[in-house]
Design a protein that fits this description.
Distance between the termini: 57 Å
Bound molecules: zinc ion
Order of helices and strands: EHHEEEEEHEHEEHEHEEH
Strand order of the largest sheet: 3-2-1-4-7-8-9
Shape: globular
Structural class: alpha/beta
Radius of gyration: 18 Å
Number of helices: 7
Number of strands: 12
Helix content: 25-40%
Length: about 280
């Protein structure tokens, strides 16, 4: 098979999985250490961009995917990349992703709600207790990756703690995994130096693009229809979220939604979460 050239890479960048980040003081806008953590985030993203470009990628688009989605400092981002920032975005952590891309990178990702891992949650820590697709619990690596695969774009690289990358490794054959820290608890991690983590990310991005060029990272598909089960943290959230047409209340905390495909499932999950937010007093 001929090598693919002119590769386009899409990066979804979160913060909880960045080396050195262990606390809400790092991740919240008002956190006392947030401004430092934002710098670590942009440095990890730049390492991924650098590795991708060195391997021959032609274009890199970065989507700021954490909280306000205005964390990455535009003036500090690699000059060859483009940045999608601001919120709310209809497609959230996947805004701007389309079939024109050849590979997706997840940088700074964290583990799913209810699992081990630094600051684990699924999209909304105050809303989602568990999210299942066709009976399997998924977090952001799984859900976002399956949508990317549905659009025909393989997940080529993930960085984060060992639990975040494990979810991607289980689902996406060939994905390059970079462990930026070893989670020892929800707010505890053993971290290499940020410089070392960035080097590993750059090398991982380089390898990932080389695999993409050779067509060696494939997409997987989810059988349709896709059954979503979203378990909320309290029944009031499910009370309101069940106004989503087609949703079905299974128990005080859980709504079911049967989607025609993963993309529709993603949109339903996004809508239910926003409705859940509306109940927070
Ligand atoms: Zn985040």
């Amino acid at each position: 098979m001929a090598e693919v050239s002119n590769l386009k890479i899409y990066i979804s960048a979160d913060l909880e999985g960045v080396c050195g980040v262990v606390d809400v003081e790092h991740t919240r806008r008002e956190g006392r250490e947030h401004d430092r953590a934002r710098k670590w985030m942009v440095q990890e993203v730049n390492a991924a961009i650098e590795g991708a470009l060195k391997a021959g990628a032609e274009k890199v688009v970065v989507n700021d995917s954490h909280g306000t989605m205005r964390n990455l400092l535009p003036e500090e981002l690699h000059p060859e990349a483009e940045l999608i920032l601001g919120s709310p975005k209809p497609m959230s952590m996947l805004e701007g992703l389309s079939k024109e891309f050849d590979g997706t990178f997840f940088i700074g990702y964290h583990a799913r709600s209810g699992s081990f891992g630094v600051l684990s949650h699924t999209y909304a820590g105050r809303i989602v207790a568990d999210l299942k697709l066709n009976g399997r619990s998924v977090g952001e690596p799984g859900l976002n990756g399956l949508v990317s695969n549905f659009l025909g774009v393989p997940v080529a690289l993930i960085s984060g703690d060992q639990f975040a990358v494990e979810e991607a490794r289980e689902l996406f054959p060939g994905v390059i995994c970079v462990i930026t820290k070893e989670a020892l608890g929800r707010y505890i991690a053993k971290c290499p130096s940020p410089e070392k983590a960035r080097k590993m990310i750059e090398e991982g991005a380089f390898r990932a693009v080389n695999l993409l060029k050779k067509g060696e990272i494939e997409t997987i598909s989810v059988p349709s229809p896709v059954e979503v089960r979203l378990k909320f943290l309290n029944p009031g959230m499910a009370d309101l979220a069940q106004i989503l047409p087609g949703s079905e209340r299974l128990d005080p905390l859980t709504l079911k939604y049967v989607a025609k495909d993963v993309l529709e499932a993603y949109k339903a999950v996004r809508a239910m979460i926003y409705l859940g937010y509306a109940t927070i007093k």
